[in-house]
Specification:
alpha/beta; 7-stranded mixed β-sheet; 5-stranded mixed β-sheet; 32 helices; 14 strands
Amino acid sequence: MPRWFPIATRLAFLLLALLTSVYCLLAYIPDTYFAFIQAPFQPWLVELIQSHAYLLSAVLVGLTLTLLAEYRTGQSRRMALQFIIFHAAVAILFLVRRPFSHLGNNSLSFLWSVAALFPVLWIGILDHAAHWEVQAIRTQNPPRQVPFRLALSAAIGIGLLYPGSAWLRYTLAGRPVNLVSADFMAWGWALLVHILFAIFAICLFNLVCALALRTRGRELARFLLSTFLVATAVGLIFQRVLLASLPFTGLAATIYSGIIALALVLFFGGLWRHQRKFVDHRPARNAIQSWREAPGTQNALLALVLLGSIYTVPALIGVLDWNSVLAKLWAAILWICVLVVLGRMWSSRVHIDYPVWLLLVLGMGSFGMYRLLQTDSLWPQPLKAQEATLANALGRHASFDASYQAVRDLWTISDEKPCDSLCEFLKEQTGIPPFIAVQPVNVKLVDPLTPAPGPKPNIFIFVVDSLRRDYVSPYNPAVQFTPRIGEFAAESVVMHNSFTRYAGTTLSEPAIWAGSLLLHKHYVQPFHPMNNLEKLLDADGYDRFVSVDTVLRLLLQSSPQLHNLDSSLTNWADQDLCTTTIEAERKIDGRQDKSRPIFLYTQPQNIHIVALQRALSVRPPRPAQYPGFQPSAATEITRLDGCFGSFIQYLKARRLYDSSIIVLTADHGESYGESGHISHAFGLHPEVLRIPLIIHLPQQMQKSYYYDAQAIAFNIDVTPTLYYLLGHRPVANDERFGKPLFTLTQAEHAAYLHDSYLVAVCYGPIYGILGGGGESLFVANEMDAQYEYFDLVHDPGGTNNIVNSRVLADHQRLIRADVQGVADLYHYRYHQLSLINWMMR
């Protein structure tokens, strides 16, 4: 059997088990269930699960051959046979039933996520048991402590190189980050945190080794203590760093973290023991022997690979990450790799034996110093004056330094992230799971809704996913790559102060159709009673041409008047305005009943971060053409602009343009890192909230109504505006609803304005209050127990957090009242989850 085969089969089995477990866990968490299962953010994961039974069978065949060849006698043979027989039965069951192909958002998915880890645990125990020989243990060398210089070098290297490489990537991409003195102070603070953490971790590890030396059965004691220590550390990384970023917390998260940590530690520990017994004694080939005889060359190449990975891996992860989960995971792996490489380079046969008292003093001292530096009252007065500036700089630095984020999350204690009554309330109102039944409510913008008399305008709505306001020329004169949108805007009304109410597609798109705020749930079903746009189309008999995407397929009713666009797509990220408009033109020209008014809705994904990544190989961006802009986004917007302009020309050629209402807007914007904001799914930043909103009306209609292009406007105002323009009045005046942007009088327009507006993130307990004119933004991030307040007039990028106790108290009260108002609209009342309810779920 080739020497690589046992390792390959074990690692393949581990990889499949981990992917299966993670997939089941994503199905269990309400927010990720929609993003990864129903409307898959990473379609390859769903495709892998569809082939899971076949992959498991293939991996088990290889693993069976390995185990039968390795374990031939004794207890290990019996354990291997038990493993093979049990998993053969499981593979047959999976081939027949395919349980992972139709997972629901329920407790069974969590049980499957845990069950998928037990085979990994079993393999680890099997390898340990087979190679645990008492005589061999007694002759082993005593455990060696790790020198402090190793940990300090790793901390300094990672603390300097990780953020440094990030800033270098942005500079080479033509989007340099301007560093000020506060940024260098934040970098120094992050470096200090790295050093303190490294000292603490090495003290803890060496303490275990020291205690093992002082106990009977040293190797057994070392094994038990080391397994416990490493499993605890890995479990904390999963619980505090990775799962908390989903977000997934509570008892279930603790249980899952403990099981997956123990499984991984035993698996890799068993793999190491397996290698020592079955591989090291075999003679190496000449090439490998030569490699082993040149440790200097090995170390140099490994160091070079490591340096390259520090630069390239974060770039490969990019903005496709979900709240920096992959970036933090890579940071944890990077620490291990750096320590291993440095250990090889500085290997020494000199036995290091730090005294226990020194390890205790340094370990407690490093953690105590970190906690002490977190206490504001102990800082000198000159530093207190710079506290707000430094806090903002640390926030920017964390966006570029996932290692600092991971260490900070790992060392956080409950006092640093208190969850007060508002925090608990917002968590109760967020990501409402399916087991909590919420009955649909008939939300009415107009009561009663009757068919509008007379001829009706055609309606064309383009909601470009992730399109920012400052990336189109009507809002930013520096933009030279959207001439067709600029021409369209010159003939239309440009709402210059336009925003979204939801940072994320999964609630923003339904809110556009509802014309109102929604319960933080995916979704209340059936959705039609809340779907005011669909009710308008039914009442006025519109012939509908709609790109029924992954969100709308859960919201829209079937209808003979519904013509599905882009129905042949297998991946939602392939929804392209250029192909959609060609299909729409063909279907509009070919319709039989031309007496019906036309309604078109599409949400092209041309500049979604997933689509941008997929387009890199097809249309490589040229940063020099778009100075100051994200090159990939600017490249794709240029193409989208041309296709949008072509469709406008089509409408003019068919004489539909002058009798149509045409809306160009977005569901939300995107962060490209200009202000230190990179999070896609969890960012409630100004650039994410600011969207374009351009509305073309028939000329006579536009002259008949009052509008204020400088007043605050939202994309959920589109549906109430259509109601008003088609004669369905009066539109309900409720701060939870959108408002008509065109009215008969100025007084009526002013009556719909409010002092503040609730905004929210789609995937976690992060809410905000936008000032009535868009002049301020307050953010309550209950995932990180962080509160921010930005003056968007003088700080439009939202880089200077000026929150104070008065602002905090006033806006916390507003958020509670507004969120409770939404809950009241849908008659929702939170109830505590019991074990019986959980099992029933």
